[in-house]
Structure formats: structure tokens, C-alpha cells
Amino acid sequence: MFETPLFLFAAVAGAMVPLILHLTQKWRSQPIYFPTIRFLRLAQHAAARRIRLQNVLLWFMRTMIMLLLGVAFAMPVIRTTGGGMLGRAARDVGIVLDMSYTMHYETGEGTAFDLAVEGVLNMIATLSEDDRYFIILAAREPSALIPEPIRDKDVAIEALGDLEAGYEPSALFPAIGVARHILAEHTGRRLQELHIFTDNRKQAWSGIDTARAEDARAEDAVSTFVYVTGVEAPQNIAPLSLELEPPLVTPSGGNMLHVEVGSWGVSRETVVQFFVAEQEQARRAVWVDPHEQATVSFRVPSLAAGTYTARVETPEDNLSVDNALHFLLRVGASVPSLVVGTERQTLFLRAALRAAAGSEDAVTHIPHDQFVGFDIEPYGVVFICDALPVDGHAIGQLEEYIRAGGLLVIFPGARTRLVDSALRDVMPAVPEGIWQFDENDARQSLVWEQPEHPVLAGLDVLSRSPQITMQRAFVLENMHADAAVLLRLRNGLPLMVERNVGSGAVVLFAIGADRGWSNFPLTSYFLPVIAQLVDYSQDSRRYPLFVQSQRGLLLNDVMREVPSERELEDGQGRSVRIRHVQQDGKPFAYIESPLAPGMYYRRESDGLHPALAVNIHAQGMELDPASAPFLEQWLQPVAISHSWEAYAEALDIHRVGRSLVEIILWLVLLLVAIEFWFANYLVQRGEASNKVVQPVSGEMST
Amino acid sequence: MRNHTSRPILANTMKGLIAGKSGIEACLSVDDRTRLQRLVLLSRNVVEGNLSGAHRSPLRGVSSEFSDHKQYGQGDDPKYMDWRVVARTDKYYVKRFEDETNLRVYLVLDRSGSMGYGSGSITKYAYALQLAAAIGYVVVKARDAIGLFLHAEGMDAQMPARNSMQHLNDIIRQGMQFPPQRGREGNLAEALHIVASSVRRRALVVVLSDLLGDEGETRKAMAHLRKKHHDVIALQILDPAELDLTVGQGNLFVDLETGERLPASPEEIRSAYVASFGKFLDDYQRHCAAMGIDYRIARTDERLARFMRGWLLQRRKFTV
User: Fold this and answer.
1) CATH architecture group of domain B24-47+102-319
2) Which of A131, A247, A477, B243 is spaced 20 to 30 Å from B189 by Cα?
3) Are A319 and A236 in contact (CB under 8 A)?
4) Could you report the predicted ipTM of this complex, rounded to two decimals?
């Protein structure tokens, strides 16, 4: 393709010049009188082929020089794609914009996201009037910013104007798939391009469906460009996760906060600060190696009952969005417990619960006939003592309570109907018979099957060899696959089994809670075990310390009560809209857009109350860039550019073509040099031959 | 002898000769003649002459140089009786002496069209005339005789061998009177055959030509001369431009003898020409050496006296 094709005529005319000169020179004869042409004829015959070749070579070089000069003026370009003579062809352009939280990385020229948006706008500006474009945002799930190909460039300026990078990891391949799908639906254009603007983090390219990618690659006629706005060697330190030990925080204090700190880039020492209610509690220095995680621990101060905002924080760095890890510190006075059963059967249990909670109010007792219709939702744990079976409505209520995160502890008794248990769907095992102990085997040691389980962990009795006196016990059969035996008698009978169901759990004992089954309620082990069960059920287990930023956050899973208000507020007074829906008669509340990291509050009459701590999902994030061979393998891009200049050049070459003017001019220069040398060589060879001639000496013939 | 009245083929055919003079004075300056004074042209073979001279003669006669004995026979001069032999053997023997004679030198001068060529200040024909004058001068000074055969296609002029400066002047004037003409081809072979037939007694034949004629026929004619026991000297007169084709600008060669035209660029065919012409000269040199002919190239850009001195001294060395 030529940008000024008229010069091709000049090229042809120029190419004729040497031939014309050659022909005109032929007709202008200049005689040389010579003694004899006999030897000249012989010489001409001998040199004819060489002379012809030399003449042809000279003519060819001179013709090529003139021709190439003319062609250079015609400004030829090589097109890699189709198009008209002038390289203008309508095209559909798909744009995939990486929205991952790593796009907040400060590169020195702006954040990676700012550079990407600027690149998108610049690229759109290069489109002609007939070109169309659409924009797909690559977050955890792809979404369309401009879903259909359009021509109006102002739409992109408006849509991208207020756009900010997301707060969750992104998945690029699904977004690329969506873009390819849209391009495939619009096949009317001759040319199709796919432009990916990303910081090229390795994790964003994970999750590739290799089979589909290979199919797409094999059939793909879409020209793919990758504009990398991220840095090659990112450096970042961030708190990744935290854990409270023990999980229940009470006014008595004594909890430890363990924080995992991750690093990318160089090894360095960093400082981790711990804040509660915006007050710095402590700071720790820790050395972190790249791609490693270091743990730093803080002691949680004694706090009055209530919910506190808290965070751990690392110093400001290039990726500041993940420097703070926010969480809610819920300090409970006690965990409310509900005990269902007769006075006699629950006597020791209630005593143990009151002792564990330190309050009479923490324990609610109802007889089993009042259980149906009783609101059990406010209670952290429900103890059922010889109250099985329960009627159908109560079964549904219990299952819902358990799946929502509640803890159900069952002490069977005489009322327990063998085999036929209405709670089979949530029971860890089925009591199928009663084992009667005689005097010889009444004394049984307790075997701690899973001492690391939260119910048993930390019990001092583990260090001793606890023994109880047994009278009878249910034989627990048909253990569920998810069930685990926590306590076992020395004769092998399971004493306590547990099964996680939904967000909650069910703990089933093989004995009753009264002294008619064993002396377990009378032993010193009973109270710690019951207290551990109460701790096991505490809020922190049901409601996480924080949530990760995500699209469509269901508040029912992360807040104690479904908020009735329409919005939450962040610390700066900005509101976040809460959407409410009803499903199966139950209200659900969710927030559609991913939340920015930070603390969110409920506005009540007495002010703001912490409701939600939101953090970026930094755990497992890999900041290292994906390799070029990887991208080439799965995308086969036309170009992978790290600057707008390189990207624009690749675009120009692809759309318009690679200019050959420079190459041709170099070629002309080379040809001129060769021609000059060759012509001089021929002349010098002629002169040299003069010197080579040795006059035949007239030696005396003898 | 044919009388040629045609005008010179080229206006400058005689360029190189001394203007306003004729004969030997037109060809040799006083300085040249002085330099040639001490030189002598010797024949390498036995030659026959009318007078006693410095050259060996096959005829037995009055001479101081003893040759052999012969038994006395009727008609022998008794004064050559060798009495010592008679006294020792009682047989009559007469002495025989190897006669020394004068040298007869015949110049065979080529005046074909090609001899009119001269790229520099002198044409080949003018140089040949100078050579002829120089050789004649040396010969006459040695009391030898000099003659001339002037030819082109046929024999144009023929002058007998005589020992006089006047005769030499006539020879040179004769040469100057018949310069080469364009379009006249040379036939050296025929001329040499005529010389071989004409000169009955052994002589020294000096061929002054560019030898551009038919090589085979020319070599046969030279062999004919050698068969007649003539001593033959072949001086090939060549212009420097003929050796290396430095002919300047032009692209159409015109043959001075045949008028043939050949479009060619000198630069393009120079190397091939030099190779081809060099082979031609080598062949001549080889064949002349085989026939015992003194062959030498005379470049027109070489000073005459220097050439003569080098040539004759070298020849003397081989002859003595």
C-alpha cells in the first residue's frame, strides 16, 4: 500500500532513465583508428559475456536506484490486516479494562488504573468515525461498561470519567471471553480488535479454561493488543489476615490478635500498627521476605462489652489500598443460652452455664412442651435435654437456626425415640440402642479423639486422665460423613460427636445431662466442656470479623440482624445503598456494588454504630507480572506494550502498516555505494590492466 | 620497382621525423649518429659478400685464418702448398683459408596501413624509418652493404645492397616517399618470399614491421628465409597503445588496413585484449626462437639510440 501512490509514476519514469541514457549513448559513436581490430574482436568475443553481465548489473543497479527512490517518495507501507488502498477500514474494537484492586498501584506516573483509563481514551481517540467500540470491565465477574459496539466517543469519556479501580481480584479471561463473544456477534465489520488494558498481574490471568482458549485461539481472527500499565517488579507489604485467640472477646480480655503480613518485592522490615476505635494500641516491627508471610501478634486490650472498630495497618507504600485490614471487635458480656428440658434433667447443665457465663441472665430455661414456637434466634446455643423428638414445626425452626450458624447441643434421654429421629438431616449420628454398664466396666476413661477441636482445645483436663462412672449410654450408630467423634469412652463407645451443618453445628452426647446416665455432670470436666461449647457458639464464629469486598454482598450472612434501613454509611459520611428482597417469606438484604475497604456504620438514633468491616481480598494475591510467553501462548497478541508510545506504534503499524521508506532509503544508499564501487572497480580494473601489461621484451632468440 | 604517388593516408604519418630534412638527417640527429658510431651489427650466421670484411664467409679464399687441408689437385694454386706437410708425409696438400667477407643487410620495411598508427609523438612507420636509418648507418659505417625492400600488399620498392652513405640516404628517402596509406593491407609473407627468392647469397634480412598480418604465412616466409641460410632479424614495431589499449575516448574502432568497424568500449575489453595480444606476441617470440630468428619488440615510445644500443650489444654478446 502506498500513501502517495502518484509517485509510482515518477518511480517508473526514473527507472527508465538509465535505459534511455544507455540507448542514447549507443548511437553517439566516436571512432578510434586502430592498427587492427583482429585482437579487439577476439577480446570482445572473450569478454562479451562478462561485459554483458557487467552492463546488465550496472543497468539493473541504476534502474533499481531510480525505481526505489520513486517508490520511497510514494511512501509504501506494509499492512498486516486488510483494508483499502489508504488503510481505512471500519473495525469493531473490544476493550477489556482490568478492574482489580492492584490497579491502584502507584507507578510514579499515576496509578496503573489511571494510565489504563488514559490509554483507553487515547485508543478510542485513534478510532475513525466508522469504527465502533465497547468496554468490558474485568473484575471477579466480568461486567459491561458499554455493552454494545457504539461510535460515539463521548460516551466513553463520560463512562470512564468517574470510574475507579475495584477492590477485588479480577479474572481477565472471562472478560476476554465476553468481549470475544460480543465481537463474534458483530461480524459485519472487516476488522476486529481486542484491546486489553491491565497491570498484567499473574493472578488476573489464572483460571484459564485451556480447552476453550485453544479453540478460541484456533478460530480467532481478532487482533489482540495488550497494554500493560503495571510495573515490572512491584513492591508491596500488606496485612493479609488476622485471627483472634480465643475467638470470643469478653471484658475480661486476654485475647491475642495474630496478624499475617505478606510481602512482594524485596525483603524488608516493616511496622504493623494495631488500632482499636482509632486509638493505636500497639505497634510491632517484623521482617518480611518476598512471597513469604510473617505473623505478628498483639494483645487485645480489655474492653467493655460492645462493638468496636479496629484495624491493623502497615506503612504507606505504592499499593496503599491494602495497607489497612479493618475488622469489628465484638466484646460480649456473655453468650445467651437456651436450655430445653425438665428442671431435673437440666439442673446440672443450667448450673454449669450460669457458672460459665457468670450471670443468671445468660441462661434461659423452658420445658420441652414450650419449645414449639419459641424464638430461638437470639440464643447462641440451644441445649435440648431429653426433648427429642420435637414436632415438625420445631424441627424446621431448629434446622434453620443451625444452618444460620447456631449451635445445637443434644443430651438424649428416656424420651428419645430410638432410630426414628426427626432431626436425622442434621444429626451427626443416630442413637440406636442403649449400652448398660455393669460394675466391672462402669469406670471409663475419656479418650480425647480430637484435642485440637475448638470445643476441647485449651482444656486443662487434657493433661490429666479423666475418668467417669457410667451407668448407661446410647450407642451412636450411622455416623454422618461430616461428623467427628470428639470424646470416646475407653471401651470405644462415642461419647460426644459433632457435625457442622451450614454455618452452625450440632453436638450430640451419648448420655443425658442428669445423673441417671453417668456421673459426668458431677465431674470437674463437665463445666469446662460446657463453657467451651458456649464459647464455640459465640458470635465471632457466626459473623466474621470482616468481609471481603465483593459484588452482591449478602448482609444476612455477615450481620447479626438483617438491617432494616436503606443504607449504610462509611466513615466519611458517604452512604451505601442496601437492597432488600423477600425470598420464601424471609427478608434478605444485600449491597450490589463492591464496597471500598473500610468501616461501615448503621445510623441509629443515638448515632453511628459499626456494622461492617470491609477489606480487600489480598490473601493469595500474586503481584508478579505474567510472562510474555504466557500471554503469547494464550492470546497470540499483535503486541504487548508497556508504554503508550510503543502501543500507539504497534497500533499504527497494525492499522496503517509498517512504513518501508526508511528501509528503502537505506537500500538505495547501499545500492548507490555498490554501484559507485562497482563502476570504479571496472574503471580501475581497466587502468590496472594497463599496468599489468608487460611489454614483450625482445629477447635475443638463440 | 613500382612508383607510388599516392598521398599519405594520414597527415601526420611521418610525424616524429625531423622536419625540413630528408634522408638520414630526417631520421637521425647528430647526437643519435654519434651514439651509433661504435656500434656494429654482426651476423650470427655465415654470410656471403663481395668484399673482404669482418663477417665470416663460406667461400674459401685469401685470408689469414686457416680452415683445413686439401690434397693438391689440378688447378690449385701451388702457392698455397703446405710444404711442412709435404716434408712430413711426402704428400702434396694445399692450405685452405676461411674467407672473411662484408655483410649485406636487407631492410624489409612494411608500409601497410597499420604502420601509419601512432598514439604518441611518432608513428610506427616513422619509427621504422628511424630504425632503418640507424641500422643502415651502423651497417655502412662497418663497410657493409645495405639494401631495401619496401612493401605493403605487394613489393613497392626494392633497392640493392650497397655500401655508401649516399645509398643509405636514397633508401631513407625512398621510405619517406612512400608512407603508409589507409586501407592498404600489408602482405609481409609475400614480401619475404620475394626477398628469399631475390637475394641469392647469404645475407642479413631485417624485417621492420608490426607483424599484424597473417601469422602463419609470415612464419612460413620467415622459415623460407632461414632455409635460404639468411640471418633474419624481426623487429616488431609497436605503439604503446597497441600493448595496453590506452586509446582514450571512443567506442568505435576502425581498422586502418581493412576499414572494418567494431563498436566496443576500450575499458570493457582492455583486459581481454591485453591477454589476447600478449598471447600473439608470445607465439611470435616462441616461433622465432625456434627458427633462430632474432625477434625483438620495438616500442615507439622508447628512445631510438637506447634501443639500438641495448639490442646490438646484446646481439654482439650472443654472436661472438
Assistant:
1) 3-Layer(aba) Sandwich (3.40)
2) B243
3) yes
4) 0.79
